[in-house]
Known about the structure:
The structure is a homodimer.
Chain A: H1 7-10, H2 16-30, E1 37-38, H3 50-63, H4 79-90, E2 102-105, H5 108-114, E3 125-129, H6 134-142, E4 148-149, E5 154-155, E6 158-162, E7 180-184, H7 196-209, E8 212-216, E9 242-247, H8 249-252, E10 260-263, E11 269-270, E12 273-274, H9 275-286, H10 292-301, H11 304-330, E13 335-337, E14 343-347, H12 354-365, E15 367-368, E16 370-371, E17 382-386, H13 391-402
Parallel strand pairs in A: 1-15, 3-6, 3-7, 7-8, 8-9
Antiparallel strand pairs in A: 2-10, 4-5, 9-10, 11-12, 13-14, 14-17, 16-17
Amino acid sequence: MFQVNDNYQKLPGSYLFSTIGKKVNAYAQANPDRQIIRLGIGDVTQPLAPAIIQALHRAVDEMGNAETFRGYAPDLGYEFLRSAIVENDYRARGCEIATDEIFVSDGAKSDSGNIQEIFSLDNRIAVCDPVYPVYVDSNVMAGRTGTYDAQKEMWSDVIYMPCTMENGFVPEFPKETPDVIYLCLPNNPTGTTITKEQLQSWVDYANKAGAVIIYDAAYEAYISEDHVAHSIYECEGAKTCAIELKSFSKNAGFTGVRLGYTVVPKELKCGEVSLNAMWARRHGTKFNGAPYIVQRAGEAVYSAEGKAQLKEQVAYYMRNAAAIREGLEDAGYTVFGGVNAPYIWLKTPKGMTSWEFFDYLLEQANVVGTPGSGFGPSGEGYFRLTAFGSYENTVAALERIRKL
Amino acid sequence: MFQVNDNYQKLPGSYLFSTIGKKVNAYAQANPDRQIIRLGIGDVTQPLAPAIIQALHRAVDEMGNAETFRGYAPDLGYEFLRSAIVENDYRARGCEIATDEIFVSDGAKSDSGNIQEIFSLDNRIAVCDPVYPVYVDSNVMAGRTGTYDAQKEMWSDVIYMPCTMENGFVPEFPKETPDVIYLCLPNNPTGTTITKEQLQSWVDYANKAGAVIIYDAAYEAYISEDHVAHSIYECEGAKTCAIELKSFSKNAGFTGVRLGYTVVPKELKCGEVSLNAMWARRHGTKFNGAPYIVQRAGEAVYSAEGKAQLKEQVAYYMRNAAAIREGLEDAGYTVFGGVNAPYIWLKTPKGMTSWEFFDYLLEQANVVGTPGSGFGPSGEGYFRLTAFGSYENTVAALERIRKL
């Protein structure tokens, strides 16, 4: 008789966004005259840039013609895209990354869930708290996290690194030594980040401890400050300890297009075993490449027109971020993030829990955000608003909050 | 100090297609005047059908417009595509499958590699021999296959079900009881299949043994005989024991477009645990949906124009299959497959090994095929040719083989 992977049964329900959905729907039905503004989910709203639309149309036409039709893509991704990535995301920043260290995928979510597969089940992981839930959940499914304490909302074998206003949202080196360290910087959900110097100290720590850093740079395009690194490979020694995940979702609006990539340097080894070779084997066995047309869209992100158009798109969202930040500060809130990331993280007022503030904001201002406690226990007492709405809605939402 | 997943190191090198590539390149360089015809890899060559191209262009335009732009897709896939699948692939064949039993993905290769994750590491898998290598390799990576015998090319904990001319390529119930049974029907690489009645006996066997069948129906569109099932759910009782994988690669030429789906019936349970819920959780945690534009292309596969155009495309390839079959038979070869699948499986002549015949065919006829031994030990002494070339090339290749 077959048996299932018991680790799945250990996972607590994933209720955050479904609970939000239910509460919003119930409120909307009871109050059909109210116009609800959603600044909750981290999904983009601006259409794809013209340069990308043109590239997609061109690639579609190629697929309809026998001479230019493309079947199976190369495992690692097309050379044209990997070269553009190497040139623009690395060489231009002084990082020497080779094209065969780039693995093109269907998105950073898949990569961040799958990357744990190449590590031993005995390895101990460390995560920032609060953070994107996929890192922990994918390790739960693999059986790497021990037992769950429902009251603390913590796993016995996961090392949590609290990031709160008390430590300026900078993760501290944990007491126990981790084997695999997940860093999402700029961070989702807090919208905060650390300096290049602080990141260098994490690289040094990992190299000394023999740990691997999984560096999720999904929000890199939103960095506005000079002392913040765009890639972990800007730090000395990162190639012997770090894997970097990149997404096209937030810099180019590809949440529904699906494209990402992972960098696994050839210097990253466990004894004689190359992690680059392992990830290549995983890619070749369980994945069949990103769509040709989508890879051409990715290439267009790095064209002169694409870059100019996407710079405007990022600026559009960051104008929203500034409006939220300033609007909340004017209204007396304590606010973080929003400078190097499209997320604003606010301290809930008057000691409200994250969910109490959610209800308050929904009912009093008809604005939807995300309770911070949904991202980890240290998110309790915080609340996330995103800059991905339209400017008009963002301004209107802030107007309402200011009037509370 | 971090450690890697040791199971990866147990995998023997994956040399089949790279060795073919090297041999072909060496021959081509030494004989620049010879025109080589490739009937080796299972990749399509016909361009996407006009109905699909139109759907792609329409969807691209939607993505360029703020009113019709789509961000994150629903986890399971868009309702429009899942409804079309249910209606055309199931209801039209008398199978009652619900839309929430369909999980749209980026292709059957990903699904066939990932599906093992929801089973216990103690489970014993059974595979046909020869077969598509991903089933075994993905279980090796998970640690489910024991030790490798390099001489026999077999894993100690895998149950092999030889499919050879002696048993008419029909897998027999194994002596040891498996927990998870992989069936790829019509089969890659043999191009053979079994009757609906024989498939029913496998469903009965699985239900009695408490085993799950992973049914890979990637080549379903090529079935031409009435007594062959298009879906395992045509068999009584399949919903309590079978997961079905489907691809758009071969019926619609999507090898470079990437789309597939998996059916996990709600009746499929281990005690109280629903495999449908488990797969939904995996999908929601480690995957972020197939691209919107690609899902619209998938929808067009089921439109009246799409169906008519793809029927022609399949007929085009099957004309090649018939030409290969008949040409080889005329030339005195013993030939299988090619009736319900785009693959022709031939017995190598004069006791040649698969690789000896590969060299012979490359050097004497300048035709490239795939050595059967690359798909499993029982493939030794066989050879695969595919019908996915152009008709002109296929006919020319057969002309050359006939003259040998």
